[in-house]
Amino acid sequence: MANIYKPQDLIDGKYTTKENFNDSVKKSLELLKNLYSKKLIISGSLFGAAARGDYKRGSDIDIFIVTVNDKYDKVIKIINKFSMEIRGKMNIPLDLHVHKFESLKKGNTYYDPSFISHLVTDCPESVKVGKPLEKVIVTNWSAKEAVSARMRIAKLDLSRLQAGLEYHKNNFDGYFLGGIQKLFSRTQHTTRNMLFIKGDLEKYKSKDRSKKALLNLYLKKFKIKKIHKIEKEIIDAEDKYYEILEKTILRIKKGRNDVKEYKKFLLSLDYLIPLAIQFFDLNLDLLKKL
To answer: Within this chain, do residues 258 and 155 fall inside the same structural domain, yes or no?
Structure first.
């Protein structure tokens, strides 16, 4: 999940570079190996950009961990300290998924089906430690139930953000920026999950997995132009964000601490919130028919 920067972070130089991202990935993998060698975890894996190696400005580091049952609190303490160090020194957020083995065995935790597929089949063995994840992850939720739950939570989060939008937006606080960040990622996750349920995402693995390619496949399979139009607008806005981000960083590197364009663009993204809520409603209705 990409990081949306506060304007002041850019002025202060607190943004990700390819070098410090790669260094943080290396340290994260070393952490997993250390936890496993000390018998604190059963399995662990990097995923997302850290596993694929397709860094872009704002990439975070995603980590999935399954702890030994009675070591959960100790592991949480260790990785929270590590997360604070990485965030403090390099402003790279860690997206941590930490579970007790006994909790996973009960099967009560739901996952995006495409997320499980990504963990098990897409992530190379070089970013994994311990027991194979396919032997650890158990869920009693069907794919449709899990995807429905994810979409409902995403819609609720956006509705809450919309209710207090003016305050959060004008302060450029983490609630507003984090909400936009989740909006970008969760709509794309929904597209992958819906294709997975349709049975086409697995067939598509060897082809172009870009956001727009998957969206075009979605339109081909479901033929709902309204959903396609909304997500295309969200994808275009995300691409525009990265374009303006790079222009702003380049300007600051040249000694001009001008973030007016960047601020203006961030403030303009509020129109995406009702669009995304509509996007989830339309997909929830579609999911019932599958």
So the answer is: yes
